[in-house]
Amino acid sequence: MDQRTKGRSPEKSIFAAIGRWSYRYRGLVLALWVGLLVLGGVFAPRLDSVLHGTGTTYEAGAAATDRILEDRLGIDPNALTLVFEYDGSRPANVQPLTNEIGALPAVESVGPVAAAPGTTTDGNLVDYRSLSLDGEGSSTNAAIADVLTLLDAETPAGVTSYLAGKSVVDYEAQVISKKDLVRAEALSLPLTLVALVFIFGSVVAALLPVAMAIATVTVTMGLIYAIAQFSDVSIFAVTLTTMLGLGVGIDFTLVMVSRFREELAHRTVPEAVAETMATAGEAVFYSGLTTCIGLLSLLLFPVVLLRSLGIAGSLVILISVLAALTLVPALLGVLGLQINRWRLFTPRENSGFWSWFPRWVIRYRLLAVAAVVAIVVTLTSPFWSAQWGVGDVRVLPATAQARQGVEVLEDAFGVGRTTPILLAVTTETGSSVLVPDAVEVLYNWVASLEGDDRVASVQSLFNLDPSLDLAAYQQLYRAPDRIPLPPVAASVAQLSNGDTTLISVTSATDSNDPQSRELVRELRRQRLPGLSVSVGGETAKSLDTIDVIGQLAPWAIAAIFLVTFISLTLLFGSVVMPLKAIFLNIMSIGASFGALVFIFQQGHFQNLLGFTPVGYLDILLPIVLFCVLFGLSMDYEVFLLARIKEAYDSTGNNTDSIIEGLECTGSIITSSALLTIIVTASFAFTSIIFVKALGLGIAIAVFIDSTLIRAVLVPASMRLMGHWNWWSPTWKKRSFSS
């Protein structure tokens, strides 16, 4: 799992020099890392207080409509919803409860009953009220907690109360994620430690990777806390940091410790540290580099969740690499031969399976390539029927009260009621939106919207009363401040102000339905004489997010491919190997994507994994997975090919180099993959669908990559390609040899 470039002496390697420095000043290195760990330990526990919700939508386009409505009409775009479900058809008195909620310091207002009561399929009556908070971030979370406590304690008998809204989803997602992290760590760390004991046979050697991973996660959490002081960070950044930090931190340290133990058999401790750094250390560096490339590409997307995961993921990889290149050699220097202390048994050498299996694969290489390609194509095939959406309240488990509240509302009023399409209509000249000409245009437009089969209802100033015709509305609105009908006057005050009015469209389908999205597209294409229409709401935000992902994803993928190709060309001195590595990575990632569609979109294994399928994949999931998996899969590619390259530089024999590379790295790659699978698969049993799918997707891809791709397809294809594996243009060969 390491590499020495042809003609390069380990003694002259910069990585060997770092190893010697870390060994010589190991006391200083350990002291610096202890200081970082203490700082991380101080600030990491405070991270929850500065995180910025889920951050799953693109806050531009549709978000501008929210600002118009807030600035010109005083409508709170982040208003929460109090939902009351009454047992039977007779409502209880909840006014004392809403009064208490309204008296809370952080509550700005509690609106009146928002609509005529609806009825659920069980025959229960339902009504709801809007609730505006005065605050944001951690203060919003504290206010939500206060409201939920009050609802718990003071809801009258015969009534079930819920609090719904995007901020409540963010709050509950943060609370649930925190509990899930504890559960995932409690499951994965003991299993990982047991696996490491079986891999190394020594308790001390097994403890080192786990300790390194915990240290890197802690330090990274402290750094993210600092970043969150001046930048929005999604709550899911903590999850990815933990998942990657444990997986990659253990992985890198496993590589270093394995090589160190190998070198100790015939070298002194200082020499073994230097040689470990010159080989395994260099491989870890390039592996970390390729992983960071993928994660940093997430910064290209203007979505808080993606940028947060890009920052958090690349940080934890960077810290893991720094720890592997400084802290690990320092600790190895301190431990020396004690690395094998508390030995429970002696692991078997690589003379068994990994000796004959590469020979068997090479012998039947055509059959091996055909079989692997067929399996991967079959696993990938469901991906072509993928449907895309943006995570809503259904990312939460069915037991979450915010989700239950939305489901009660949808049952009573229809699926579109919780995610209305908001139309901010303004006059182009700045004149009143209630002048007769504007009223005529909007009256006719609202009538056409009401006749659209995709629209369940429309709320506006131009259809308040079915008994009023166009002339009546024009007459009423000639003097908006002297309207004789109190309900109409109240609506005018609420839904209009000078040149602006709000029209709220309730779709017949939910926000992730293609029919709702097409309705938004048509509304955005609508041109009204003398009027400008801005379209907002959750459906519009989801559509904006999907569109911006579609526009930027090809550029991000191209950037990953280009930078990876350049870095691997520098490492291997070949232009063929990087291209093949990229292609093989795509194969394992594609198989993982297909499996996720099969599971989460189509609903297979939902009882085992504990989720309710929503009929689509979150559009952010494949982007995150691609960027994470491309780096992780490249880890194994680099580790394997680096050792093959090392053997090829020594012998010049392609076939023997392939066999030697697999003999030396097969068990380590398998062990590393097993540990990564243990860590990431533990997140498949968490409660939030996005996290569940992320953990399972990584585990599936790593399993496919470490078995079918690295153990079978790589050696078989390399044998078929022969010396062409190492081909590069003549000018490149001269540059590498120099």
Features:
Alpha-Beta Plaits, disordered C terminus, alpha+beta, five-stranded antiparallel β-sheet, 738 residues, Multidrug efflux transporter AcrB transmembrane fold, 9% strand, disordered N terminus, 12 strands, single chain, 24 helices
Protein model, in words:
The structure is a single chain. The strands form 3 sheets. Strands 1, 2, 3, 4 and 5 form a 5-stranded antiparallel β-sheet that branches. Strands 7, 8, 9, 10 and 11 form a 5-stranded antiparallel β-sheet that branches. The chain is elongated. With 738 residues, the protein is of the alpha+beta class. It folds into 3 domains: 10-55 and 171-394 and 543-737, Multidrug efflux transporter AcrB transmembrane fold; 76-170, Alpha-Beta Plaits (2-Layer Sandwich); 420-536, Alpha-Beta Plaits (2-Layer Sandwich). The longest helix is centred in the N-terminal third of the chain and has 35 residues, at 166-200. The model is unreliable at 1-9 and 733-738 (pLDDT under 50). The protein has helices at 14-24, 26-43, 61-73, 95-102, 138-154, 166-200, 203-227, 236-264, 269-296, 304-335, 353-363, 365-380, 401-413, 436-450, 470-476, 486-495, 514-525, 538-572, 576-601, 606-609, 620-651, 654-681, 689-721, 730-737, and strands spanning 80-86, 107-113, 118-119, 125-133, 159-164, 388-389, 421-427, 455-459, 496-497, 500-507, 531-536, 617-618.
